[in-house]
Amino acid sequence: MSCDCSNTPSNQPPSPSERRGVMLKLGIGLMGIGGAIASIPLIGYAITPALKKYKNSWIDLGGTADFPEGETRLGKFTNPNASPTDGASAEQAVWVRSYKPAQFQVFAVNCAHLGCPVKWFQQSKLFMCPCHGGVYYEDGSHASGPPPRGLFEYKWKIENGRLLIDAGRLPGLEQTV
Amino acid sequence: MSTAFKNIASLLGVIVVATCLQACGKISATDPDDTVVVSLPQAAMANYAENCSACHGANGVNGAARQLADANYLASVGRESLINITTNGVPGGFCPGSGPASLAHWNPKQVADFVDGLLDAWGKNGVALSIPWSVKLSPAGNASSGQAVYAAACQSCHGAPNFKGVTAAGSVTDPNYLRLITDQGLRSAILFGRPERGMPGWSGPFPHQAADRKLSSQEISDVVAFLRSTASQKQ
Amino acid sequence: MFRNIKMVGTKMIGGLLGWTESRSGAIGFVQPILMHRVPRDAKWWYVFGSASLMFFSIQVVTGILLATMYAPSAAEAYSSLQYIDQQVPFGWMLRALHAWSSNAMILMVVIHMSQVFLHASFKFPRELMWMVGVLLLFCTLALAFTGQIMRWDQDAYWGLGIGAAIVDRVPMLGNQMRNVMLGGPYIGGATLSRFFALHVFVLPGLTIALIGAHMALILKNGISEMPKPGMVVDPKTYVVEYEERIKKNGVPFMPDAAQHDMVFCGLMLIIVGVLAAYLGPVGPNGIPNPTIIDANPRPDYAFLWIFTAMALMPPQIETAVLLIAPPIVVMLLLGLPLISNRGERAPSRRPGAVLAYVLIATALGTLTWLGVVSAWSPVMDAWTSLPTPVKYLVGRTPLEMQGALVMQHSQCRNCHSLGGEGGLRGPNLDNVGSRKSWDQLVRQVQQGGGNMPAYGKNLSSAETTAVVAFMTTLRNAGAPESTIPGAMERQSSPDQAPTSVASEAGK
Questions:
Q1: Both C17 and C71 in a single domain?
Q2: Considering the domain A57-167 in this protein, what is its CATH number?
Q3: How many other β-carbons are positioned within 10 Å of the β-carbon of residue A161?
C-alpha cells in the first residue's frame, strides 16, 4: 500500500520517520538481546528437573528379621530426595519378598503398566493392580494383563543385619528405578 | 439399609433352611427358628462384612466355612481363643486372620472390639460344651476304636470309609478333603456340627440313634484319628 | 414537589452517565457488542457457548475464593480441603460448586463443539474461531486435569503416576520430560506447586485470552446462520451475502438472541447449584500416602475414556498409540476447517461428517461407560467381602465345601463373579460346570491362559481337586455336567495321599 503523504507538512524537519526507523530497529534489537538474556534463567528455572541429575541413595528398610522368609511384606521408607513440603507423599513403599535366607527381591509398588499401586495377595501368591488389571507372579514376573514387563526391582544389600535398597526416583519404563 | 439387609438375609436364611430340608432328605435340619439372623453392632458388622463374610456367610450363617452366629460355639471357644484365631487365623486352614501378614492389619484393640462385638451379638446365652473343644486339650485318639464310633455315628450319612458313591452328606474320608481340613476342623465339625446344613452337633440328636447318646471327648478324638487313618491306609 | 425531585434526580443521573461516558467511552464500546446483529434463527441451538462462558465465570469466582483458603502445599493441601469442607461456612458448597460446575463446563463445551461441527459453522470465514475453540477445549480439559490434582488425594497422586508413566514412555527425552512434569524425580511437594501454578495462573490466563479472541472473532465474522440444505458456503461470495442477509433479517443480539441464552444459563445455573448442594464436594478421597496401597485410583469422568483405552489396547501398540495418537488428534481437530472450508453446511447433506460424529461420540460414550464399570480391574476385596451365594452351598459334599473355601481363599472372585458379585475380568463361574469338564477345569486352574495367571505352583493338588470339584457343581438348573469324549473317569491317584495336618488352632 502506498502512503498518501500529501498532507504531511513539508517544512517539518525530515528526521522523525528516519529517526523512527533507526530507533525502531535499535529498540527491537535491544529488546531481543535483553529478552534472550533474561529468558536463560527463566527457561533454566522451569526445566531444572530435566537438567538436574537425581541420584538414588541407599535407604534402610529395616532389619532383615522384619521380612521373614517365604513372605512378601510391605517395606516403607522416606524418600531420600524428599523436600520439606512433601508431607505424606514423601513416604514410599516397596514390596519385599524373601524367598531364601538372606535372599530378597524388592519390588516397586508401581505397576509397570502405568504406575498404579499393586497389591500383594499372599494366598494366591499374586500381585494385582487395581487400575487396568495387571497381574504378576510372586517373583515379579508378568502373569497377565497389559503391563509390558514384570515389576520393577530395586537393588538391595544387607549391612549389619539391615536391609538397604537403592531408591529415590519414581520407577518408570525409561529409567527403571 | 440395615433393616432391609436384615430382612432379606433372614428371608434368605429361611428359604435356604427350607430348601435344605427338602434336599437333604433323610437329614433333618435344626429348627428354622434357630437360624434367626442377628446383626452385629455397626462397627463390628462393617469389619465382619469386609473381612469375614466371604467365607463365614453374611450375618455369620450359611457360609462355606463355620457358622459363627452360634452362641454355643462362641461360648465354648471363649474370648481368648477367639481373639487368637481372629489375629492369627487358623494355621493349616484357610482363615488368614487379621495379623500383619494377612488381610486387615487390625491392631489388638480392633481385634478385641471385634470379638466383643461378635460375642455381644451372637454369643448371648451360649452354653459352653462340657467336653474340651480344642484338640490340644483333648485326649489322643485311637484309630481302631474310632472305626466303631464312625460306623455308629457317622456312616449313615457320610457313607462307609472310602465309599465312592453318593451319600446323603458326602464323603468325609475323601483323601483330598482330609488334606484340606485340620484335626481341629474335624473335631469342631463333630462338636458343633453344621446346623445350617443339617449336620447335628455333639448334642445331637443323630439320626438312627438314641436321642440321649452323646459322644465322649475320647470318642471324638478316636473318630478324628480314624479319619486320618483312612487316608494313610490307602497307601 | 415530587416531580421536581424526580426531574433533578434524572438530570443528575443523566449528567453522571454522560460524564462517565465522555471520559471512558464505555457505553460506546459495549453497545455495538451487545447490539451486534445476529441471524434471526439464532435461538436454542446457540446457547451452549454462552453457558460454557457462564460456567467458566463461576469457576473463576469460586476458584479465587477457594484459593483464599486452600494451602497449595503437599503437606497441607489435604487437611486444608478438609478444613474448607468442615469448618468454613459454605466451604463445602464452594468446593461442590467448583467441582460440579467444572463438569458442567466440560459438558457445555462438548455440546457447543458438537453443534458447531454438525452445523459446519467452522467453515469460511470462521476457521480461526474453530481453532481458537479447539484450543479452549484443551484448556478446559487441562484445567479439569490439573484441578483433579488440586484435591491432592489418592486419585490425584496415582493419577499423576499414570500421567508420569505415559510421559516416561517418550523415547530419549521421556525421563527428563517426566521430571519436568513432576518437578523432580518423584511425586511430591514440587509437583503440587507446579500444577497449582498451572491451574490458577497459566491455564486460566490462557483461557481468558482465548475467550477474548473467540469473542472478537464472533464480532468480526458474525454468528453463523442455521444451516439450510442447498445454501452453500462459497468463500468468494459468502461475506457479502451474509452481510446482506443479516442487514435484512438480522436481529440485535440484545435482547433477541440473548434472552434465550439467559433463560438457558439461568436454568443450568439452578440445576448445577441444586446438584452441587445435593451431591456435595468431590473428594478428597484418601490421604495421598503412597504407602497406603489399598488405593483404587480412578480419573474424573472427563478422562475415564482414556483410562479405558489404556486397559483395552493391545499392549504391543500401546506406547506407539500413546505417543502418536495425541498429536494426530490435535492436528485433525485444529486442521478441520482447513480440510473443509466450503460447501454444504446442512447435516443432511454431510452424511460423512454426521457418521464420523456419531462414531466418535459413540466410541467416547462407550469407553466412558466401560471405564465406569472397569471390568478389567480386579475387585481387590472380593475374596474377603463377598459371601459364596448360599444356593451354591446347599447339598454340597465336604470336599466341595472346602473347594468353595479354596475359591474364596485363592482370590478367584477378585476376577470371577459368582451370583452377580465379584470381578468381571474373567468369565463368571455361575455355570462353569456345564461349560468345562473336570479335566479342562484342572488345566485352566493349573496352567492359566486366556489372561488368567497359572495357579499350578500356588495350589496343592488337594486344593485344586477341591476347587474343581466345587466348580463342577456350578451349573444352571438342568444343565448337564460338561464332559469331553474319552475323558478319564475321575479318580484320586495314589500320589495324592493326604498328609496329616497338625492343628494349632485356637491354642
A1: no
A2: 2.102.10.10
A3: 10
Q: Say how far residue A56 (Cα) sits from the centre of its chain.
A: 12
Which member of C177, C182, C425 has the closest CB to residue A133? C425
Task: Output the CA torsion C439→C444→C446→C447 (10° steps).
Answer: 120
pLDDT in tens, chain B (235 residues): 344 444 444 444 444 444 443 333 333 334 434 444 556 667 778 888 888 899 999 888 889 998 898 888 999 999 999 999 998 888 888 888 886 555 557 888 888 888 998 888 888 888 888 888 888 888 888 889 999 888 888 888 888 887 877 888 888 989 899 999 999 999 998 888 888 888 887 766 666 565 566 788 898 899 999 999 887 654 3
Residue C131 domain-assigned?
yes
Chain A nearest-CA distance from C17, in A, is 38
Nearest alpha-carbon partner for C80 in C3, C153, C160: C153
Q: Which of residues 138-157 of A touch C (CB under 8 A)?
A: 143-148
The tally of domains found in chain C comes to 3
* Partner residue facing C188 (CB), from A47, A83, A126: A83
Provide, as residue numbers in chain B, all residues whose Cβ is less than 8 Å from the Cβ of C507.
81, 84, 134, 136
Residues C436 and C368 occupy one common structural domain: no
Residue C39, SS3? coil
Q: Is the dihedral of CA C1, C3, C6, C7 positive or negative?
A: negative
**Where along chain B do its domains lie?**
1-37, 38-128, 135-233
CATH of the domain at C462: 1.10.760.10
Three-state SS for C306-346 is: HHHHHHHCCHHHHHHHHHHHHHHHHHHHHHHHHHCCCECCC
In this structure, the answer to whether residues C123 and C232 fall within a common structural domain is yes
**Is B135-233 a domain of CATH 3.90.320.10?**
no
Q: Do A71 and B101 touch (CB under 8 A)?
A: yes
Judge whether C220 lies within some domain.
yes
What's the one-letter identity of residue C443? R
- ipTM for this model: 0.86
Where does a domain end: C348, C373, C398? C373
Q: Which candidate from A52, A84, A143 shows the least CB-CB separation from C453?
A: A143
Domain with C2 in it: 1-35
> Which one-letter DSSP state was computed for residue C498?
-
Q: Is residue C498 situated within a structural domain?
A: no
Mutate to test the interface with A, among C81, C154, C175, C304 (most CBs of A within 10 A): C175
C-alpha distance from A121 to closest chain B C-alpha (Å): 8
CA–CA distance, C445 with B224 (Å, rounded to integer): 31
How many C-beta neighbours within 10 Å does residue A50 have?
Answer: 15
Interface residue A70 vs chain C (CB under 8 A): no
Residue C153 counted as domain residue? yes
The sign of the torsion formed by the CA atoms of C191, C192, C194, C195 equals: positive
- Tell me, yes or no, whether C97 and C239 share the same domain: yes
Confidence class of residue C283 from pLDDT cuts 50, 70 and 90? confident
* Cβ-defined contact of C177 to A50 (cutoff 8 Å): yes
Residue C482 DSSP symbol: P
Note whether C175 and C291 are same-domain residues.
Answer: yes
Nearest to C290 among A89, A148, A173 (CB): A89
Check whether residue C22 and residue C74 sit in a common domain: no
Do A123 and B100 make contact, defined as CB atoms within 8 angstroms? no
In angstroms, the separation between the Cα of residue A151 and the nearest Cα of chain C is 14
Q: Are residues C277 and C182 in the same domain?
A: yes
Say yes or no for a CB contact (<8 Å) between C506 and B77.
Answer: yes
CATH of the domain at C89: 1.20.810.10
CATH superfamily of this structure's domain B38-128: Cytochrome c-like domain (1.10.760.10)
Query: Is C418 found in the same domain as C336?
Result: no
Does B75 contact C at CB distance below 8 Å? no
Beta-carbon separation of B101 and A73 below 8 A: yes
Q: Do A122 and B100 touch (CB under 8 A)?
A: no
